[in-house]
Structure to design on (192 residues):
């Protein structure tokens, strides 16, 4: 078989994955778990976040797994001994992109206005009741930060009524930031 199922994790969505020393690490939602998966497909939970989603993973230059969350906007790190530490918590709700360039971590984050909408006409005998409300997220703004090895944070880009989807660094100097819902790509000459 060319394609086969490798592992079924106990989560709704697998948001991202990264490899370290022959292990695959997978970030999940809506239960906010970080899984370590061995080559044969066996897995274990190495972090159970208070957040509902671990949205993005990357590795730093020491091999530590770095991950971001929703809805608290927290960035964590887990070392080879599975010790977890908070690197930073920011004002935005969601971390969507993490990118290391040497010792600097670039963080793409979104701030959403969250509206809970209740259907007043819903049949009260329906098993899906108003207790399970429809969630609508509308982007208020996005921010891109740099975080140096000493923990110093710097805002390098801010956008209104958009959300960041990815960050890439080109030639160790130009930062490209992709966004929605307007389909823009920003270029920031930050590292020259």
């Amino acid at each position: 078989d060319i394609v086969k199922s490798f592992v079924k994790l106990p989560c709704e969505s697998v948001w991202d994955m990264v490899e370290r020393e022959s292990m695959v690490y997978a970030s999940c939602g809506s239960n906010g778990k970080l899984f370590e998966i061995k080559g044969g497909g066996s897995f274990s939970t190495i972090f159970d976040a208070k957040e509902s989603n671990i949205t993005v993973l990357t590795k730093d230059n020491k091999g530590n797994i770095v991950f971001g969350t929703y809805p608290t906007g927290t960035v964590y790190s887990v070392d080879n001994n599975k010790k977890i530490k908070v690197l930073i918590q920011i004002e935005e709700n969601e971390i969507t992109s993490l990118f290391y360039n040497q010792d600097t971590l670039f963080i793409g984050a979104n701030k959403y206005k969250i509206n809970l909408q209740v259907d007043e006409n819903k049949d009260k005998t329906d098993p899906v009741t108003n207790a399970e409300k429809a969630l609508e997220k509308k982007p208020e703004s996005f921010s891109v930060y740099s975080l140096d090895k000493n923990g110093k944070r710097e805002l390098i880009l801010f956008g209104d009524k958009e959300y960041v989807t990815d960050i890439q660094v080109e030639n160790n100097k130009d930062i490209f930031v992709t966004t929605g819902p307007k389909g823009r790509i920003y270029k920031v000459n930050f590292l020259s």
Q: What stands out?
A: Residues 123-134 have pLDDT under 50 and may be disordered. DSSP finds no helices and 15 strands in the chain. The two ends are 48 Å apart (CA to CA). Residues 115 and 136 are 5 Å apart (CA to CA).
